[in-house]
Amino acid sequence: MCALTGAVTASGSSSEYAWLEAVVRILTVAAPIAVGVFALHRPPFERFGTLLVAAGFAWFLTTLANADDPTLYSIGRVAYWGFEPLLIYLLLAFPTGRLDSRLDRALVWIAVGLVLAMYLPTALVVERYPAPSPVAACDVGCPANAFMVTGSEPAVIEDVVRPLRELLTIALFAAVAVRLAQRLRGATRLTRRAFAPVLAVACFRCAAFSGALLGRRVAPASAVVDVSMWLIALAVPLTAVAFLAGLLRWWVFMARSTQRLVAKLRAHPTPEDLRLALAEAFDDPSLAIVYWLGDGDGHWGDADGLRLDPPSVAPGRAVTKVVDGDRLVAAIGHDSALEDQRAFVDTATSYAVMTFDHHRLAAEASSLLRAVRDSRARIQTAAGDERRRIERDLHDGAQQQLVALRIRLELAAESMSERPASGADEAAALRRFGDDVQEALEAVRSLASGIDPATLADHGLVAALRTAALRSPLPTTVLAAGAQRHSPQIESAVYFCCLEALQNAAKHAEGATAAVIELWDEDSLRLEVRDDGAGFDPERVTGGVGFTSMRDRLAAVNGELTITSSPGRGTRVSAVIPLRAAQ
Amino acid sequence: VFRQAARELLERRGYAVVGEADCVAEAMEVVERLAADAVLVDIQLPDGDGLKLCAALTSDHPELAVLLTSAAGVVPDAERVRATGARGFVLKSRLAAADFGRFWPNP
To answer: Is the peptide bond prior to A132 cis by the omega test (within 30 degrees of 0)?
Structure first.
């Protein structure tokens, strides 16, 4: 076909640039067919590719108008009349290959009607076709019309039909140009990327066609008309090339979008992170994701469970359902240009599944964690109340009775020693009883204060720790800067930890000569108990009941325990309890 | 129980025990009414802090000799004891061995 075009053009041309004309004509046929064939298997452009191939074939017929032979020339000229409605259809149907609006369909039918009513019939009666023309290089020396059946051309053709049909054609192409301009303006940023080149060329071509017809009527021999006829001819392959450029731009965009998306998303994106990242990466600001909540008879909502409407299919929008196996996970509302685009669908759906599952698991985990923490706090509070009750009982009951008993024994011993009849032995025996009572009293006292000393509740941490320090076999200093009162739970936990650490130091820290308890109040309550004993290797001593119960008591008030020690460098037990955090 | 033992102890030491109280409010009233010379105050009282009671008593009656005592735990530091205007502090378990003459006027 291309060879035929080349041969016809070269033989028909009288100009010295005949070979150049031939090459250009060959291109005008080859480009749309090649690009059309290329698009035939690329969704969603199959239909448009088919139309492009058809346009290429139709355009091939028009190149016959470059022949010297009147019959070939006439076939080319008449074929060109048929080509223009096809071109209008092609341009208005871009990119789907379908005419979506009634106005577009009406424009195509008007074009067909115009050709059938006012162009084709004249082929039988005119002597010559109008020149210059976009399909023929000849100007004045064009061959005559081979299809003329009447003897002479009726005057009505030149006087009425030609001006009228050119006026209508100019109006028609102007309308098509306006429609294409509207499409260009109405395109989203996303679609403009792919469609703008074609729409711009098409819009320019239709406007130029109107202009050229007008020019031919006003000044048929001017160079401007000649040049614009060539431009109109070249616009056909240019449309194909623009289409190819848009296609390439689109592919590059999709590949880059996938890269951008991967770069944007953190390790565990929240649902909103994902939506923003997808919207930005694929340049679709109104992209929306709704999740399917509940399994069988669930409903649509956001990832946190708030009920939402499913994404609606508005003009220019499309919905992609996200399915994991046979489980419906989500629906993504997006620009229809992204529909069925593998790069988009694959990444968006897999990220949506991952994000949603992660979000749900994280929510479940955090609610479980909250429940565990609450229950631990309740247990510690209940245990604390119970400890305080026992301590009060010991203090008010056993301790007071032992104190009274001790005093009475002393008084009895005094009475005994005053009486000469009974000996000093009995008095000494009573005093020994008194010492036994004293020991029992000490035992009860240390039991009571080990449980939860009344001092702690009445006088606070520092007083209670000072008292505990006095009783410790290891000389102990209490340093406290601005220690304030805190909730009973916190004070009790801190007291318990200090006492436990102090007992550990007294029992296990060989060679320890002193211990220090230090407290600070800032944004958090910090405590540190250190000794100058032998220390131990934390790698080899793992936990023990003491450390575990210290950690438990602290955890109930969101505190954390750190134990640092190494052989020969003493032991340091420190804890931090946040005070601002909600308890 | 303790008050009964304490009364016996003090009477044995030659003091006349003129009144008893089991809470802060009653203590204030008793001291006022009986014009006592000396008082033994437990710093852990059911309705308040014995240290505060002591401070209130000594500010009303500067000549009153207050001795603080306690069954367990709290050994208030000397400075706090002095701040309340008390003459001293003795643990309950050591009361029988204490020399009251150091804190109180002789009976």
So the answer is: yes
Tokens of A579: 């005070």
CA distance A339 to A206: 30
Tokens of A260: 């951008």
Tell me if chain B has a CB within 8 Å of the CB of A414: yes
DSSP calls for A439-476: HHHHHHHHHHHHH--HHHHHHHHHHHHHHHHHH-SS-E
Specify the pTM. Answer: 0.53
**Angle (nearest 5°) at CA A121 between A119 and A124:** 115
What does the alpha-carbon distance between residue A375 and residue A60 come to, in Å, rounded to a whole number?
84
ipTM confidence score: 0.85
Cα separation, A457 vs B22, whole angstroms: 21
A434 chain-B contacts, CB cut-off 8 A: 96
What are the chain B neighbours of A388 within 8 Å (beta carbons)? none
Chain B residues within an 8 Å CB radius of A449? 72-73
**Under 8 Å between Cβ of A555 and A576:** no
CB–CB of A379/A371 below 8 Å? no
DSSP output for A221-233:
T-HHHHHHHHHHH
Minimum-distance CB partner of A411 among B9, B71, B77: B9
Quick one: which of A79, A155, A149 has its CA closest to A119?
A: A79
pLDDT, tens digit, 9 for 90 and up, residues A113-170? 999 998 998 888 888 888 778 877 777 778 888 888 887 888 888 888 888 988 898 8
Q: Could you tell me the two tokens for B7?
A: 């009364």
> B32 to chain A, minimum CA–CA distance in Å?
27
Query: Which among B73, B92, B93 has CB closest to A449?
Result: B73
**CA separation for the pair A292, A275 (Å, rounded):** 16
How many CB contacts within 8 angstroms connect chain A with chain B? 75
